[in-house]
Amino acid sequence: MLDNLKPTILSNYQLGLEFAQQQDQNDPLSEFRNQFHIPKDKDGNPLIYMTGNSLGLQPKITKTYLVEELEDWANLGVEGHTEGKHPWLHYHEFLTDTMATIVGAKPIEVVVMNSLTANLHLMMVSFYKPTAKRYKILIEADAFPSDKYAVESQLRHHGYDEKKGLILWKARDGEELANYDDLEAIFEEQGDEIALVMIGGVNYYTGQFFDLKRITQLGHVNGCMVGFDCAHGAGNVPLKLHESGADFAIWCTYKYLNSGPGSLSGAFVHERHAHNKDLNRFTGWWSHNKETRFKMRDEFDQLPGAEGWQLSNPPILSMAAIRASLDVFKKAGFENLCKKSKHLTGYFEFLINQLNNPNIKIITPSNPKERGCQLSIQVKQADKSLHHKLTEAGVITDWREPDVIRCAPVPLYNSFQDIYYLVERLKTIL
Ligand SMILES: *Cc1c(COP(=O)(O)O)cnc(C)c1O
Predict the structure, then answer these.
(1) Best label site of 60, 219, 295, 327, fewest CB within 10 Å?
(2) Which residues are registered as beta bridge partners of 376?
């Protein structure tokens, strides 16, 4: 790991290419960009890739890690489980420590398994325990659709009306960001009817990074279980999951964690539940005590900690890609990345504000503590043709109807010059 970098938070951003070039030159993390495959346009020029919040780029070492497993499989067959260079039997354990560091958890609280929405359901099997009086689920109003569908189906599964059972934490009319006073009001009115609070730790649309600890405390005081979907937080912001006190969290690894399309998900279960054998769960042989798993006894013996939620032996090729990516994070140091991220996104915000265009509004919070790297930029009177034009100009962003461009400069592989050119091209198009 690089030595902890000195904070380089600059309040004096400047216009002009020279400033961006200087920042890149002074950036001790800039060499990491070369460790990634940056997609190119048809003339071979690197694209300005701003969608690491959707699919992170491929580290160059990923191929080596995958080939290693393919070779072990070719040469060893089933023996690879125990004799492989990285034996498959306990392969998920190679991921745990770094993943725990990134999400701010203890190793016993973290496991990589399954895909994201599947894990959300598995967590709700354990932490959504509705009763006739207390059965409602609270989520943020513009939650990622998969999360909303998942909680609705849990309500139906337990025989409750999904409309009555779902409470939405909405932004006020004319505002974009959810407001904590409104959350408190919801708890005051309906706190004793809410069984589960399930919020996206960083909202995918606005980029708002919620105060996980505050929400957890509010939920717990009101007798609710609390979980977070951190798909847009993991690898992006310091989540401090343990300290938040949340009962569970889940996240995917293909966004900021650069582990490839459709890759596995991470799950966090707070230490306080690690040895609770009374929690309801769905189980499989991978939830069984490791020491006796292969004795194939009839009697189930629950594995403690987050690992105890595993069902199946995992896909090693996907895990190899995660291991490669986590090794890159370990080398860079997650704290260093967070520092650079604040600086990059601050610069981005500065350039957008300097456009002085009345049709442009950043809906992401301006407080760096309430956001990660993503800025969601509303362009009034624009339509999707703006997104097409940006794409034609070599800028890969994400468009959300009706009028929002989401851009996520990622500190591992995006540069200050990326941001400079992105804003220049946006200016030209507008
Ligand atoms: C990306 C994302 C998903 C996607 O779910 P998968 O199960 O991985 O397909 C779900 N929820 C949130 C909040 C996301 O950001």
Answers:
(1) 295
(2) 406
Q: Distance, CA 231 to ligand 1 centroid (Å)? A: 6
**Three-point CA angle 57, 62, 68, nearest 5°:** 165
Domain ranges of the chain: 17-59+333-429, 93-271
Fold equal for 17-59+333-429 and 93-271: no
| Residue whose CA is at the smallest distance from ligand 1 atom 1 | 231
- The tally of CA atoms less than 13 A away on the side-chain side of residue 233 is 27
Q: Using the mean position of ligand 1's atoms as its centre, give its distance from the Cα of residue 276 in Å.
A: 28
The residues with which 288 forms a beta bridge, in sequence order, are 302
Residue type, 348: F
Which CATH code, of 3.40.50.720, 3.90.930.12, 3.90.1150.10, 3.90.79.10, is assigned to 17-59+333-429?
3.90.1150.10
State whether the beta carbon of 286 lies less than 6 angstroms from ligand 1: no
Task: Identify the CA nearest to 88 among candidates 96, 97, 79.
Answer: 79
The maximal CA–CA distance of the chain, rounded, in angstroms, is 69
Q: Could you tell me the mean pLDDT of each successive run of 10 residues in the chain, 430 residues long?
A: 50 92 97 98 96 98 98 98 96 98 98 98 98 97 96 98 96 95 98 98 97 98 98 98 98 98 98 95 93 83 95 97 98 98 97 95 97 97 92 95 95 98 95
What's phi and psi for 363, nearest 5 deg? -90, -10
- Distance CA(233)–CA(79), nearest Å, equals 37
Per-residue pLDDT, 7: 46
